[in-house]
Design goal:
Strand order of the largest sheet: 1-2-3-4-5-6-7-9
CATH topology: Porin
Helix content: under 10%
Order of helices and strands: HEEEEEEEEE
Structural class: mainly beta
CATH class: Mainly Beta
Radius of gyration: 18 Å
Number of helices: 1
Length: 160
Amino acid sequence: MRLPAAAAWLLTALLGYGCGGGTSSVPTMPSPSPGGQPNPSPTPTTPANVAGNWTGTLESPGFVTRTITVLAFQGGTCVDGAWRTEPAEWVGAISGYADVGSFSGSISFQRPADGPGKCGGVAMVSGEVGENTLRWTSAGFTGDCQGGLPQSVTITLRRQ
């Protein structure tokens, strides 16, 4: 995925503020139940695997549903990456933390200078992460953008 220079700068800036310098935790074994009997179903203790290539949709009222691709990198609980729509009308970066079955963090938004005009924003996003699917939601992006920024955002993706 080739990002415009401004998007590459934004990605670099977010990665610098992201969790790249964080620590990763080592999974622990579940405690045995009283009486020496094993727990019937151990609770997962490792963070969701968000790393990889994902494709799906970005939905927001007032905007056409767009096809989106995401490339995410993960080290322990730290997740950073980039996204773009197809066709490449919108681009951005992702930075946050994976937990057991979920992700929470921030996502940036950038629209190139063509069309309604260059603009950008940022949003907090969170949601479920399955083995091959994820569904994140956000109240919406804040920033300055002619024509407005997506609000009540739902991102639904499948691992490629």
